[in-house]
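Good morning N.,

You mentioned wanting to compare the apo and holo forms, so I went ahead and generated the holo version with adenosine-5'-triphosphate. This is what I fed in:
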Amino acid sequence: MRKLARFLKNYRLQVILGPIFKLTEAVFELIVPIVTADIIDNGVRTGDVGYVWRMGGVMLLLGVVGLCCALVCQKMASIASQGFGTVLRNEMYRHINTFSHKEIDRFGTPSLITRITNDVNQLQYAVAMLIRLVIRAPFLALGAVVMAMLIDLPLAIVFLVATPLIGLVLYLVMSRSVPYFKVMQKKLDRISLISREGLSGARVIRAFSKQDHEEARFRTAANDQTDTAIRVGKLSALLNPLTYLIMNFAVIAIVWFGGMRVTSGGMTQGEVIAFVNYMSQTLLALIVVANLVVTFTKAAASAGRVNEVLETETSVPEPANGPVSPKQGAPEIAFSHVSFSYSGDGGEHGEKYAVKDLDFTIRKGETIGIIGGTGSGKSTLVSLIPRFYDVTEGSVSVEGINVKEYPFSQLREKVGMVPQLAELFSGTIASNLRWGNAHATQQELENALRIAQAKDFVDRLPLGLESPVSQGGKNFSGGQKQRLTIARALAGKPEILILDDSASALDFATDAALRRALKAETQGMTVLMVSQRVSTVKAADRILVLDDGTMAGLGTHEELMESCEVYREICLSQLSREEAAR
Ligand SMILES: Nc1ncnc2c1ncn2[C@@H]1O[C@H](COP(=O)(O)OP(=O)(O)OP(=O)(O)O)[C@@H](O)[C@H]1O
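and this is what came out, ligand included:
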């Protein structure tokens, strides 16, 4: 947790002054039993009503000043803890944004969400407790014992017996329940994962009538969490009866022995009452200490999870240099003996390469079709160009410069990527398209829509380009979303356009119109078209055939029909012999 203290640096004043105010309140709280004793001994016993009123006023004053101190501390704790949470959350979000796909895959999106929300909340609460109670509670527990000793040392033996006993009970209960808190946090992660999958995949779940299955999965995870919470609850439930039992025995002992001391003249009645008050103050303070242990144990687990995110460095670091100049005459894209494995070790630990020894070049302005069976490595290959992942072996160059040397903004401006899954963001159609180019004119946006075959349906919308897009683009069909994501990439006027199976939801006629428009209107743009459909890639200048991560062929349709067995098989599985030969 110490590592996270840096996020409190703007709140030093609150972190220092807050506990001081709370300590002042605790001092007043310790004085109150003495005033009570004084009222009993010098006011009640002698029947001096005026004295009772005067001292009652002093007590009220102590209470009011104590309350003011507590309120000031509360405010400081709120400012510091909320501020700390905000700064930490912003930093985590910024840091997560530097992650490559590899780190995001490793943590998993649901876990990252739980860390940035629940774990930060836990830490925020711990900061508030740190300011409000970490000094106050032990001070009060100890102070009450010391005050009792100052009043009457022999009777204070009751404290010296009862307090360690209460401490022991707290220790036994806490040491058994604390490990469960860590487990509960992991189980919460699982619930978050299932909820996310279930809610984002609600349509698929309905389509496959898997609601019962998903509900059962959620119920199992939730029940699992409940079982653990109940186990902790049962343990914690022992705390109050046991500690109160000890305290009440201690009170009996105080009244019993205190009575004897009063009879022998060693103590006054008021002092016995003060002892009883100090006893309950000690107990309450110790319970607070125990709860603080729980809070800080949970916070320590959360701090570990937050630090794990903050300390994870991206596996795709951005170079420190400024923009690079392309090499004249170099191929637009060059793969030089490229291999990539998702685990980064290329099979040493049994994991195989997703792509292996890819070696080819692509000229500027070429249209390349990339075809292959599912899982053959098509998406992996194209994701190496904009550096979503870094190659495990070999190198990828764009215009003669290794992609690792490009500043991200320069590389990603050059490469327009349309991912397999069409993602839109809440806003308007125009605001989504401007992700590609913030300064695009209306004309440029319309042009991008026209090439992407999206202009007709956008024009039919009452608000046209200003039509609202709901979260995830849910108010558009799959094919419409795909066309909008293509338009978004085109709006950025990239030099290299990658369509990663991004026309799969289009009907054949629209798909063909899209390819024609791309060919006619994007002169000079290098286009990589990933598809499982032969009809989509057939007319490309060249087709790259992937088979289980390796390159099975690269050439025109006719050349590959002649020379590439894998390509011929794919063609004949989708087209008739006549169509394939055409
Ligand atoms: N994020 C990932 N983590 C680990 N392995 C992955 C990941 N993404 C893909 N793979 C594995 O890498 C291999 C190649 O996957 P890739 O997605 O590149 O294939 P693809 O040809 O695009 O498939 P499809 O046509 O089904 O989209 C597969 O074996 C897949 O299981």
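The chain is about 60% helix and 10% strand.

Happy to go through it together on a call whenever suits you.

Best,
F.
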